[in-house]
Amino acid sequence: MAAPEDQKVPVHIRDSVLEHATRTKHAVHDASSFMAELQVQQAQYACLHWVVHFEILKQMPQPPASISYENLASKAHVPLVTLRSVLRMLMTKGLLCETTDGRVSHNTISAPFAKNTHFEVWLRHVVNHTVPLFGAMIGATDKYGDSKKINETAFNVVADTELSFFEHLKARPELEHEFDKYMKSQAEINTGIRAEHLLQGFAWSALPAGALVVDVGGGSGATAMVLARAHAGLRLVVQDQAVPIANARAALAAESNADVVARIKLAEHDFFAPQPEPGAAVYLLRTILHDWPDAEALRILTPLARALAPGGRILIMDMVVPAPGTGARTLEAALRQKDLAMMLTFNAKERETDDWYRLVAQVDPPLAIRAIQRPEGCQHSVVEISLASEA
Ligand SMILES: C[S@@+](CC[C@H](N)C(=O)[O-])C[C@H]1O[C@@H](n2cnc3c(N)ncnc32)[C@H](O)[C@@H]1O
Prior knowledge:
Blueprint: H1 11-28, H2 31-53, H3 69-76, H4 80-91, E1 97-98, E2 104-105, H5 111-115, H6 117-135, H7 137-144, H8 154-159, H9 165-171, H10 173-189, E3 212-216, H11 222-230, E4 235-240, H12 242-253, H13 258-262, E5 264-268, E6 282-286, H14 294-307, E7 313-318, E8 320-321, H15 329-346, E9 351-352, H16 353-361, E10 367-373, E11 381-387
The protein binds S-adenosylmethionine.
S-adenosylmethionine binds at residues 166, 183, 187, 217-219, 223, 240-241, 244, 270-272, 286-288, 291.
């Protein structure tokens, strides 16, 4: 797997050090130090939001160049005193640095946010979408209580709409485009959920030449590209809504490898409708079912079960949440953040192992889970499913 830009140490070493640091901190914290840290973190998040809003990071030169606070304040049209205080607060979180002559400069953590669109998109998504979403958690409980409806969520409170998340995106193509860009950024640069992990999650090389893989809800095709580049024998179909498919078309047009382009077909398709590609070797659902409560998840799985031929597989790439306290704390925290985000957006969830078995057992025609494995360094697991008759 290619290393993301500016990676300081190999990912497995980075993650191991962060896990040890987290455990060490938990071991020594007391209520007072916990609160003091919380207050600092709150200020750091607010400062980050301010910096994103006024596009400060983009207006700074790339290292090793630096800029004076005065010059930056004037370029960004913000008060000098606020700018200096905000940036110095962010330096306490490891972002940016000050030169010995009192100028401000990017460092290896901050520089990617100014030069790599995917990091910029990810940061904007967090401050503009995730933070307000979590902020509406109390409002959603007050308004909707224990509702399981997909249009009675914190997202509905924030967006002030009665449409479900994906209906809202469909009605506002500019938002759908933004969401698609966010999903692409995750597949490309979030080391825990990069699309490449899928290569280790299934025996792709065992598929016969010309085998068909259908990426159901495949977004703008980032995963299909990864599979097509790694396995020259595979043919792929990416199915999704109109906007992601248009984005996938643009991504394919920019792809220089003609063989990869020739083996990827794009199709608008509603995954609640009958599957138009019966008998595929693999139907892939990558980060799809966590967006949907069980009732809707079953309506997505059923057309695939009907299209499945003997030997064919449904692969679900999604999170499998561990029982509390049974694994790495940093990994569990990341999975629980996603679990809450799914609840707040869709009244859905990240499922535990038992949830996956219960869900799959309800599909008709009957299916069987053959394996669940989490590739090394990946937040997602791959759930391999066949017709029950061949298990
Ligand atoms: C969380 S994203 C996952 C995208 C991609 N599989 C990935 O791993 O990056 C969910 C995808 O489901 C698509 N989607 C939502 N409702 C759909 C529907 N009814 N039919 C087909 N695709 C749908 C969205 O457009 C979006 O691309």
